[in-house]
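Researcher: Can you fold this with dinuclear copper ion in place?
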Amino acid sequence: MNEDAKMNQVDAMPDPSRRKFLNSAALAGLAGAGLSVGLSACNKESAPAPSAAPAAAPAAAPKAAASDLHLHMKPGELDTYYGVWSGGHSGECRILGLPSGREIKRIPTFNVDCMSGWGITNESKKIIGTRPDGRLKYMTGDTHHIHGSYTDGTFNGKYFWVNDKIHGRLGRIRGDIFECDAITELPNIQGFHGIFPDKRDPVDPAINYTTRVFCGNEFHIPQPNDGRDLDDPTKYFCLFTCVDAETMEVRWQAKIDGNMDLVATSYDGRFAASNQYNTEGGARYEDMMSAEMDACVFFDVARVEQAIKDGKFMTIGSSKVPVVDGTKAANTDPKTALTGYVPVPKNPHGVNASPDGKYFICSGKLSPTCTVIELAKVADWFDGKLDDIRKAVVAEVEVGLGPLHTTFDGRGNAFTTLFLDSQIVKWNVDKAIQFFGGDKNAQYVVDRIDVHYQPGHINASMGETKEADGQFLAVGCKFSKDRFLPVGPMHPENEQLIDIRGEKMVLLADHPVHPEPHDFIIVKRDIIKTKQVGTLDDHPLAVKDAKDSGVFRDGNKVTVKIASLAPAYTLREFELKVGDEVTLILTNLDKVEDLSHGFAIPKYDINFVVNPQETKSVTFKADKPGVFWAYCTHFCHALHLEMRSRMIVRP
Ligand code: CUK
Ligand code: CUA
Ligand code: CA
């Protein structure tokens, strides 16, 4: 590290030599012994002395005023923000109340959940997708990134989208009921990673809300992946995908060079971008880290869509989705280019849009730098006014080891997680630009704080919007180690909350979370408008009147219609015959908020919940004779235990 850079270490950092770009040799070392070498190194050797991070040490915590953020809700008191969380390879999403950190709801999405009946009811199976035999197409999912729909540059609370990395699916959560209402499988994708909704229509600027969701694709595969070109990685490629926000249909895809990671969109609607690692196109581990520079690839969305209108696209395999050519070789003339590749060091991880709309920031991951890309200059390149797209980089400054993700306080400061250093660094974007521009007195690093341990995603309150309010941030720490009571080999993750109102960050709280969320957003509560009681008319199968209940037989096809009205089901018993194909429809006719009923059938492996004024159905084969007491699983009434129905299956 040079003297200038050292000036920007707020607290002296040990072993400054490690802050150079990690080269391939160093990486091979990390790889050879497992990344744990790097991890243990950051906890032991390079952990700053306690004095280096006074804000993190309780004994040395600054005066209480610095941390008087109202954190502990009194009984009955409501949080002021919704935290909308991914659940990682649990396949679900979650809602937290913030700043208390209390988990309020789990939203089954790509997983199966026997509390709600997600993956068990016909309605949820239809959303997840089934095989010809009626079984679920997929039982697993891996959610990483969750983002909300926008109006005028801020969240509107209508939808949230989340990716499934395993099977290449995009899920949508309705903001009024916090349930998944649609899942789309992207064609010809493996390792679907980053997503981001657009914020304004690129073609019709009057449409100042989200109409598209952009999806980055991490793993390159032979296209189509049907057994051809297995041994020729030069034929492998990735696709960037645009999904319609309302219909959830795939609008288009773009073939690109390299692998994609996270996605960001510009506030003016013109650009979507994805940070890239493995621009080398390596199919083997070592090959993916050989180049010093990767890229952030920009898409001029209106141009892509014009190219499709003009018929300049291909299709891949059995997919009908138009695919434009976004490779470098096909986009050499900026004035007609669909894509532009801004060089960024090295295997960057994360791209985040600053709330002023001016910059995208990429974190270096294997480079200790953050790269600031000025969008106006990217636009200049696409308009033929900038000769070299790399000149859109207005700052590239050292921040610490293993920078991954960045958030903002709306006051010009960025907060970047340092995975290897187990820290968050707060840095001023304007000062970084001045420093990079030659003003070596520009002190861009404002503060550092230790976190526990190895942070990935970070997000401040309203941090992904124009209304970033700089109150607090959450940081997803991948390792919790000693922060919670030990529970055997599987530790929870540690989501930490940090007060960012002052110059110095103050660590507020640790929260154990079920493994393993990646990303989350923090939304002011008045943006979210939920309804607590359903509408019968929204459910085509609804049993609208208790008198409509009964067993309706058509040969061996049997429909059982039941309603629940606390504390009883309308059918106290019903009869089936072995061999019947049964569809059981249950409507909850209760209108009282919070009065949900469950329905479990022993030995038939069925359990689901119906909320007030909702209808769910299940289909099963009556293959076991006997008496089966279907019962209410959800405590609803003093007579909850009595709330059951005798299902009789005659041989
Ligand atoms: S990735 Cu997980 S820490 Cu999938 Cu967003 Cu960076
Ligand atoms: Cu109905 Cu418990
Ligand atoms: Ca972990």
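Model: Folded with dinuclear copper ion in place. Residues 536-650 form a domain with the Immunoglobulin-like fold (CATH 2.60.40.420).
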